[in-house]
């Protein structure tokens, strides 16, 4: 609970930002706050992933990606405000381009097929974040 007299010194925008985070997804911060389970930042699929997130996705799609993976649509303001890092686990399939990514919101984890093409990865991610609205298939 925040005492009302303290709220008077902040604008509503600042209070919203402090409580909810910034509406613009900071890709650099998002990337810094990510661990890799069975791969590394240098893995080709991971490089494609961050390129897609940064250059192909708009902010609304990035927000939906965050919602898909973590159950929230905004990042914390800075590294110190994170209670855990996102984890990316690459999944092996005989034809990865036919599979969708899977999220585990309780663990802030993305199971990502080893897509071979940036456009296919973008299409699969956008499909998943747009059409998979149930958190951990609870519905």
- Strand content of the residues, in percent? 5-15%
Task: List the helices and strands in order.
Answer: HHHEHHEEEH
Unreliable spans are none
**Alpha-beta content class:** alpha/beta
**Taking all residues together, what is the mean pLDDT?**
89
Strand order in space, largest sheet: 1-2-4-3
What is the terminal separation in angstroms? 32 Å
The geometry reads as elongated
> What is the strand tally?
4
Spatial extent as radius of gyration: 16 Å
Largest sheet: 4 strands, mixed
Report on this model:
- The protein has helices at residues 4-7, 12-20, 27-32, 44-56, 59-70, 118-131; strands spanning 34-36, 86-91, 102-104, 109-113.
- With 139 residues, the chain is an alpha/beta fold.
- Strand 3 (102-104) and strand 4 (109-113) form a beta hairpin.
- It is elongated and about 60 Å long.
Keywords:
elongated, alpha/beta, four-stranded mixed beta sheet, 6 helices, 139 residues
């Amino acid at each position: 609970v925040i005492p009302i007299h303290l709220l008077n010194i902040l604008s509503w925008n600042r209070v919203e930002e402090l409580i909810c985070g910034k509406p613009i997804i900071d890709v650099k911060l998002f990337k810094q706050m990510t661990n890799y389970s069975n791969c590394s930042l240098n893995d080709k699929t991971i490089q494609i992933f961050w390129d897609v997130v940064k250059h192909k996705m708009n902010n609304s799609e990035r927000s939906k990606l965050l919602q898909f993976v973590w159950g929230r649509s905004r990042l914390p303001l800075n590294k110190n405000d994170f209670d855990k890092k996102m984890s990316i686990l690459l999944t092996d399939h005989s034809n990865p381009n036919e599979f969708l990514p899977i999220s585990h919101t309780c663990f802030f984890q993305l199971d990502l097929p080893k897509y071979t093409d940036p456009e296919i990865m973008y299409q699969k991610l956008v499909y998943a974040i747009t059409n998979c609205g149930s958190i951990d298939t609870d519905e």
